[in-house]
Amino acid sequence: xxxxxxxxxxxxxxxxxxxxxxxxxxxxxxxxxxxxxxxxxxxxxxxxxxxxxxxxxxxxxxxxxxxxxxxxxxxxxxxxxxxxxxxxxxxxxxxxxxxxxxxxxxxxxxxxxxxxxxxxxxxxxxxxxxxxxxxxxxxxxxxxxxxxxxxxxxxxxxxxxxxxxxxxxxxxxxxxxxxxxxxxxxxxxxxxxxxxxxxxxxxxxxxxxxxxxxxxxxxxxxxxxxxxxxxxxxxxxxxxxxxxxxxxxxxxxxxxxxxxxxxxxxxxxx
Length: 270
Description:
Number of helices: 7
Number of domains: 2
Shape: elongated
Oligomer: single chain
Strand content: 15-25%
Largest sheet: 5 strands, mixed
Distance between the termini: 44 Å
Helix content: 25-40%
Structural class: alpha+beta
């Protein structure tokens, strides 16, 4: 028997004013004192809390990604109630994250959720990511090391098992494929963005989405690291995204357009 969902999607549990009060209390804790326990309490409160969405709900963050603004309503004033659990799918399907503010007037958010983190709450009942990936990472915490640019390099050894194929909709749902395609086409100026799945049991996680661009095609390692890491914003935490091996050719990969139908999305980050 499976465990009941922690972050439920049942409407009768949404728009909870007690959760709103709890969220307001949590926001009074100084940022430097917000521990792992604080984050756990935050997610418990924010998911069903009754929050307000302004008339102009979307904005572009300093990271150039699009966010849906939600804020704690002003005490004693009427407002149109909403909940993150109610609008999470709406945001993700439009390629947006969610930014939570302490009040309608607050200039800075108290907590920012990337598109991938909201997607993780919806699909995996956790803000940490796919439990399959998390289990593998925990078991092989020291499998790879990063260089000074934040890049991980993995060299296949003789006899090592490597399987190549196409990702399924669990690893690459249509809304994620659509946003990756837009980012790569407009931000990276790729005429035909392609994707593949590479499974390497010795890696953690073992399932890796492979982009159709090689490290050698970037100006330098710093640029490659920055641009590749920015794409993780669209993916659940712990998901692995790697560059195309130098020995590969594009015909080994599938066009990203095969994984989604055209959707309306927000501004593109670079």
